[in-house]
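hey so u asked for the seq, here:
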Amino acid sequence: MQAAKNIACKVQQGELNIDEIDEETFENNLYTSGMPNPELLIRTSGEYRISNYLLWQIAYAELYFTPKLWPDFRKEDLYEAIVDYQSASAVFGMTSEQLN
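ran it, C-alpha cells below
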C-alpha cells in the first residue's frame, strides 16, 4: 500500500506523469527497493498461505512449506528446503504451454 501511496503522491505533486507508471516505478517505491527478490520463501508452522508477505517480491519465488514451527526450525530443515528448491524447475511465471 505504501508504494501505491508514494506513487499517487508523486503524481499529485506533479513529480510523475501517470503514463510513466510501470512495474519498475512500482518496484522502485517498495520498501525492498534495491534488494534482489527472494528465490525461495520458507513458510513454517504448517500453514499453506503466505499471509500477504512480500506479495510482489515472491511472484516467481519457489514456496516451501514445512510443519515445523519457527522456533524448532533447524539447520537440517534449511538444508531440506534448499534441496527441495534445487529440484524445482525455475519457470519464472511461464505456463506449461509456454515451456513446451
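Helices lie at 2-12, 23-28, 75-87, 96-99. The first strand starts at residue 40 and ends at 43.
lmk if thats what u needed
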